[in-house]
Design brief:
256 residues, single chain, Rossmann fold, seven-stranded parallel β-sheet
């Protein structure tokens, strides 16, 4: 197994959901964490909690991955002891709305594309050259079952996650002559703030997504991330799809 103690891990979207759960999982393993997200207050709270519980060393960055200049400044401006990033967890992402394509909101489309696709590209472009120079590193992208199937009214969100899948494969091809590994972790129904964000705070709509079934949790996804990150050097977990027990596909779910 690869020992990730004292490895430097950059997590985008670290203030909630899969990012927060993964931060705790990495901290438990003794990693050093660069926590990036828009909500700096949440990051500071998380940093204090991880330090108290695990003695974890953290560096906090307020960052909107949609801003290419801000991403470049954030990565280039890291203090010297934080510059050698060993693991990049491209987790920042979201969904907006659930509409037929011809009824969709352009604002929603732009937010999803800018975050899920362009944000991942901006962060990857800033971090991967250092990994190539050191001939060491691991990129773990958080994709989705929506990157493998298209479900009703999921059009643009599914398109962005198909893009994540394609970009992950492209990264793996481009880095095949290096010791940099590339992984995608693709969850199905998982209860985090995802649906609350999709439906802009509509609690009833958000809860209805998981009615009558037991969804995945952030901890489940964090377990998968840690598994991928700790494989022996000769092993690459290229792709991992995780579904809830009563979920057969993106749109086939057995509910009680």
């Amino acid at each position: 197994m690869t020992n990730i103690r004292n490895k430097t891990v950059l997590i985008t979207g670290a203030s909630s959901g899969f990012g927060l759960a993964s931060a705790a999982a990495f901290a438990k393993k003794g990693a050093r964490l660069i926590l990036a997200a828009r909500r700096i207050d949440r990051l500071k709270k998380l940093s204090a909690e991880l330090k108290k519980k695990y003695g974890c060393s953290t560096h906090v960055i307020q960052l909107d991955v949609r801003n290419s200049a801000a991403v470049k400044r954030a990565v280039n401006g890291l203090p010297r002891k934080w510059q050698a990033i060993d693991i990049l967890l491209n987790n920042a992402g979201l969904s907006r709305g659930l509409d037929k394509l011809h009824e969709g909101s352009l604002q929603d489309w732009e937010e999803m594309i800018d975050t899920n696709v362009k944000g991942l590209l901006y962060v990857s472009r800033a971090v991967i050259p250092g990994m190539v120079e050191r001939n060491s590193g691991h990129i773990i992208n958080i994709g989705s079952i929506a990157g493998h199937e298209v479900y009703p009214k999921g059009n643009v969100y599914c398109a962005t996650k198909h893009a994540v899948d394609a970009l992950t494969k492209g990264m793996r091809i481009d880095l095949v002559d290096t010791d940099v590994r590339v992984t995608t972790i693709d969850p199905g129904l998982a209860e985090t703030e995802f649906s609350m964000v999709r439906f802009r705070g509509d609690v009833n709509k958000a809860k209805s997504v998981y009615t009558g079934m037991e969804p995945l949790t952030g901890g489940d996804i964090a377990d998968a991330v840690i598994y991928a990150a700790t494989r022996p050097k000769n092993v690459v977990v290229a792709e991992m799809i995780l579904l809830a027990n009563k979920q057969a596909s993106s749109s086939v779910v057995h509910r009680k």
